[in-house]
Amino acid sequence: MDDIRSDPQLDFHRRLAEQDLAALWVARRGVDLSKPRSDAQPKAWLYDDVRPRLMEAGDLVRAEDAFRRVIVLENPAYAGEMRATNTLYAGLQLVLPGEIAPCHRHSQTAVRFVIEGEGAYTSVDGERTRLHPGDFVVTPAWSWHDHGNQGNEPVVWLDGLDTPLVGFLDTAFRETYAELTHPVLRPEDDAQARYGANMLPVGHVPQRQASAVMNYSYKSSRAALAQLAPTATLDPADGLRLRYSDPATGGWPSPTMGGFLQHLPRGFSGAEARMTDSTIYVCVEGRGRTIVNGTSFEWGSHDVVVVPGWLPYRHEATDDAILFSLSDRPAQQALGLWREDKGR
Ligand code: GTQ
User: Fold this and answer.
1) Predicted TM-score of the model (pTM)
2) Is the CB of 68 under 6 A from ligand 1?
3) Candidate of 159, 173, 180 to mutate for ligand 1, largest count of ligand atoms within 8 Å of Cβ
4) How many domains does the chain have?
């Protein structure tokens, strides 16, 4: 009976394919449509393993020639695709003393989290900000930006870009600036004074979908966590977790990517949770592990862990720990798609 039935069906499917058509009930057979299943794999990179490669790159290419001297963190599920998660790109960028990463702009948004080194700046549309370890910096979509290291030690930061998402939407544009650097148009950290002091210029109207401030200093974010930690009510899964916000709107620092800084007290053993946003964690201080879908990833300072969307994760801290993270939650929330499951 089966053969008699399947033969006409096979012929039907072949004829559909010839007309660029397909039968939905066949394509979806056996697929669990009840929840997301990311192709991305949970993955960790230890800084001690990656840093030597980054320094090798420093010997091999100059920042000016490479445009951006970055070692990309590629999810093994997307080999060759420059994706850390389904939607996010991540890389470690090195700028050596005296170097300049030339000015350009693109429709992708970039966020930076400074890993090590003093003496570098980044410039956004002619305003510079000095980078210190732990600073969270936003380079809005289509803003001119260059980076320079005027100090005497290597400076490394994590770049997070929405490149895979922007690519998926076929909205990638890029332009190179005519000069190596953008002219300086405003005093250093002007935005910090105008927007970052819990005040706003009277009549301020946001000019673009990006944070009014460029640089969220580790000094102030870390101080907030330190002040709150002793009395904070901890989230069972995420401990004390704060998000970086645009002071002019209260919203996310960019339409596509959000940033977080969290404190997990020594001995913290988190409840399991899952969220639809895909998250890239960087340990800033302390030690611990994150168990993602049953696999345990140990982390210490500067190590990176990727948690794909909707995979169960839980954090444990063996020392007082500070974790930075970035995710695509703003994009998901803007589209009304974001969900979390904290088992409550
Ligand atoms: O600093 O502008 O890691 O354009 C990848 C692409 C950094 C940047 C990256 C970029 C940049």
Assistant:
1) 0.96
2) yes
3) 159
4) 2
